[in-house]
Design goal:
Number of helices: 15
CATH architecture of the largest domain: 3-Layer(aba) Sandwich
Bound molecules: pyridoxal-5'-phosphate
CATH topology of the largest domain: Aspartate Aminotransferase, domain 2
CATH class of the largest domain: Alpha Beta
Structural class: alpha/beta
CATH superfamily of the largest domain: Type I PLP-dependent aspartate aminotransferase-like (Major domain)
Largest sheet: 7 strands, mixed
Strand order of the largest sheet: 2-8-7-6-5-3-4
Order of helices and strands: HEHHEHHEHEHEHEHEEHHHEEHHEEH
Length: 370
């Protein structure tokens, strides 16, 4: 029994992804050991924040970096940094923002909910979100038209949650940001490439430590040195309500070191093989049709896609999802396409052998339909 089961909470098999509702990621044992030691010793936090920033920058290519509690905090803090600069009086005044240069331009198709609304995180940092264009079409002129003397930043959200077509590209936003000398922030929370967006010319890029990097609850902002200093200063203001502890900072550093050394191709190959095994098994069940598909946002994730044939089974995907969740252990699948009868199984969070439990459970659920 794990410690959650000891408390009377059900064991979870996560076939869903890096989901905050399931605890995001589980950490490597080495990361855990590192966090334990960090938690048992004191350190001067200002120095740890600066030093950890220097180390993170080696992985990102940014001039500087600032640890955060996560990407949500990263958004609030980077927006606050663009609004206040190094002015402590302004830093202490946030999130009240009257009279400050505080408008933040975001494409309408990027104003998503990732579990909470993006625009709320902008507001938390003292920003006034200015949504431009339409939800399925935003052109550079929509952005340029909205720029004025109150514009503090442009923000671009790189995520599978956003509208994937009809939006203005990062390249065009970089050009606009340079032309008008306004900082461009990219929220790359779940992205795997830690250098790409700095390379493309963003001023600040935000990552979650618990998603691709599989660290503890943490995150960071990386980018332009002057702006990063302004980010770090927010810990004297709104950042205090989102402070990261020493153990999480150290866990993030260990996790990113392991992530950087990881043989991605090999681990993707193993994940793909496990999903190929699973689809072969699932395809022996009458009424289910399985195949391997790549991530819709183009990341190197190969999931098992299971199509529920309602004509044969007499139940829909939502019924199967409910049955999987209601059993013990609870199995959580990736359900963005349940409305069209598709359930996806994500190999990344699965522990050894859990694909076999998923198959057995699916078999039982279908058998019990009679
Ligand atoms: C997950 C996510 C966030 C929030 O990240 P946390 O680390 O959970 O705070 C923000 N933006 C996007 C696009 C995300 O996917």
């Amino acid at each position: 029994m794990n410690i959650y089961e000891n408390m009377g909470l059900k064991k979870v098999i996560n076939a869903s992804g890096k989901m905050t509702t399931l605890g995001v990621s589980t950490i490597d044992k080495n990361v855990g050991d590192y966090m334990k030691e960090a938690a048992m010793n004191f350190v001067k936090m200002d120095n740890l924040i600066k030093k950890s920033g220097d180390i993170l920058s080696q992985y990102t290519g940014g001039e500087g970096s600032c640890v955060t509690l996560g990407s949500s905090a990263g958004i609030a803090i980077s927006i606050a940094a663009c609004i206040t600069g190094k002015d402590i009086a302004k830093i202490e005044k946030l999130p009240l923002n009257e009279g400050l240069k505080n408008e933040v331009i975001i494409q309408k198709g990027h104003a998503i909910n990732f579990g909470a609304p993006i625009i709320q995180m902008i507001r938390l940092g003292g920003g006034i979100p200015i949504e431009v264009g339409q939800s399925n079409k935003v052109e550079p002129f929509h952005i340029e038209e909205a720029i004025n003397e109150k514009t503090a930043a442009l923000i671009y959200i790189k995520s599978h949650h956003t509208v994937q077509k009809g939006m203005t590209s990062i390249k065009d936003m970089v050009n606009i940001a340079k032309e008008y000398q306004i900082p461009l922030i990219i929220d790359a929370a779940a992205e795997e490439d830690l250098k790409k967006y700095i390379g493309l010319g963003a001023d600040l890029v935000i990552y979650s430590g618990g998603k691709a990097i599989e660290g503890p609850t943490s995150g960071f902002i990386t980018g332009r040195k002057d702006l990063i200093e302004c980010c770090q200063l927010q810990y004297k203001g709104i950042g205090r309500a989102m402070k990261t502890g020493k153990e999480n900072i150290m866990g993030l550093l260990k996790a990113i070191e392991i992530y950087n050394q990881k043989d991605m191709e090999a681990s993707i190959k193993v994940q793909k093989q496990r999903m190929e095994w699973l689809i072969k098994q699932i395809n022996t069940i009458n009424g289910l049709e399985a195949s391997v598909i790549q991530d819709e946002a183009g990341r190197c994730i190969y999931r098992a896609k299971v199509k529920i044939n309602s004509d044969i089974l007499g139940v829909d995907a939502y019924y199967i999802i409910r049955e999987l969740e209601n059993g013990n252990p609870s199995i959580y699948t990736r359900n963005h396409y349940a409305n069209i009868g598709i359930i996806n199984i994500d190999p990344r969070p699965l522990k050894d052998g859990e694909e076999k439990i998923i198959f057995e459970r699916l078999k039982d659920i279908i058998k019990n339909l009679g």
